Amino acid sequence: MNAIADYRTYPLISPLLSVQQHPDLIEVTWSDQRRSPFHHLWLRDNCPCPVCVYSVTREQVFEIADVAENLAAQHAEIDESGALSVRWNDGHHSRFDPGWLRAHAYDDQSRADREASRPQKQRWVAGFQLPVFDYQAVMEDDATLLQWLLAVRDTGLTQVRGVPTDPGSLSQVARRISFIRESNFGVLFNVQSKANADSNAYTAFNLPLHSDLPTRELQPGLQFLHCLVNDASGGDSRFVDGFAIAQALHEEDPQAYRLLCEVAVEFRNKDRHSDYRCLAPVIALDARGEVAEVRMANFLRGPFNMAPELMQPYYRAYRRFIEMTRQPRFQFCQRLEAGQLWCFDNRRTLHARDAFDPASGARHFQGCYVDRDELLSRILVLQR
Ligand code: OGA
Ligand code: ZN
Ligand code: ZN
Fold first, then answer.
1. Nearest CA to ligand 1 atom 2
2. CA 224 to chain centre
3. pLDDT at residue 1, as a whole number
4. What b/e readout covers 291-315, taking b as 16+ CB neighbours within 10 angstroms?
5. Of these four, 18, 91, 150, 164, which has the most CB atoms within 10 Å of its CB?
């Protein structure tokens, strides 16, 4: 009769002990003595019954604006199965699983617990212990896949080894997570020194520390770079944790940090057929005020367009950020060999390559993107 509008399971952490009714809310006391208020509107809004939630999609069909403003609980009790049972003054009946209710309780302690159990980003600097995974294991074993994806989520830089070196084999690996995000450079892009290159990436130049496609409103979340051949001299990979640099900048030069968070700059990428532009700050914060994203590719940047009195301080901040990406204290450097791939959080970890000598040997990488949402969704599904 009563559905839980979810695919997850909610273990019973502590049974319900008692229920107390107040004018606007019901306060429950749990067996471990925690007390949690649940407002009438909140409970009614989360009623999991088959009238309120369509059992096939597990999505709500009810809207909280459908009930009268004077909605109140007529009767509330813990039923024989241990669930919270509420009869409303409009005749509707709701029943809440205690595991679900505890998992969504919003008293101060429950909110603090939930905050504390959020996955923590592990910031890194030079000396980073690179998480390395084996291709066969990632492809065949879901537990290894999950370990890899958690490492991508929490450290933002990983390597997979033992990958076949046939062109296109990268797409099998990326599809272990989800579908690939296509761009004007293709589903898979070929990183090779080319005549008539439409990006500095497709030359033999050194590429300074950057994120890919900062020219898009949403930068790709994950980037893969798969090495098919790397026989040329030079061309080693470099990475920095953009979140670690942002944090250091915050501590060492708060004014520069603030400017990089607040002043938007334009990134541009154009060729004969496309013209992408995005106006955004170098450091973006999330709703909690924490660093959510770093956007940086100096070679894709348009001229600064800001008030004259900001120009000098902004250049100081921008130069400072680039100088920090160049500092050995932040850099992790390693050459990618054939059959290895990098998988990193493109909105966090900046990547670079040293110049190489195309006359000394072949160098061919293939790359692709998968969005962060796909990574996070895949992790949650694997964890079910
Ligand atoms: C790129 C890039 C790195 C490399 O194509 O965007 O950063 O090692 N390539 O060639
Ligand atoms: Zn209902
Ligand atoms: Zn790149």
1. 201
2. 15
3. 42
4. bbbbbbbeebbeeeeeeeeeeeebe
5. 150
Work out the average pLDDT over 359-367. Answer: 96
Q: Is any ligand 1 atom within 6 A of the Cβ of residue 201?
A: yes
- The H or E element that residue 380 is part of is helix 372-383
- Lowest average pLDDT, out of 29-33, 85-89, 194-198, 346-350, goes to 194-198
Indicate the residue type of 362.
A
Q: What is the DSSP-derived secondary structure letter of residue 134?
A: E
Summarize pLDDT for 261-277 with one digit per residue, the tens.
999 999 999 888 999 99
Contact indicator for 137, 144 with CB cutoff of 8 Å = yes
pLDDT at 2 over 60: no
Contact 36, 28 (CB under 8 A): yes
- What secondary structure letter does DSSP report for 358? G
Compute, in angstroms, the gap from residue 98 CA to the centroid of ligand 2. 16
Q: Is the pLDDT of residue 338 over 60?
A: yes
DSSP-based three-state secondary structure for 365? strand
- Check if the beta carbon of residue 340 is closer than 8 Å to that of residue 160: yes
Which residues, chain by chain, have CB under 5 Å from ion ligand 2? Answer: 47, 49, 51-52
In the reported structure, the alpha carbon of residue 89 is separated from the centroid of ligand 2 by a whole-number distance in angstroms of 13
Cα(first)–Cα(last) distance of the chain, in Å? Answer: 23
Are β-strands 189-191 and 363-370 bridged in parallel, bridged antiparallel, or unpaired? Answer: antiparallel
Determine phi and psi for 373, rounding to 5 degrees.
Answer: -55, -40
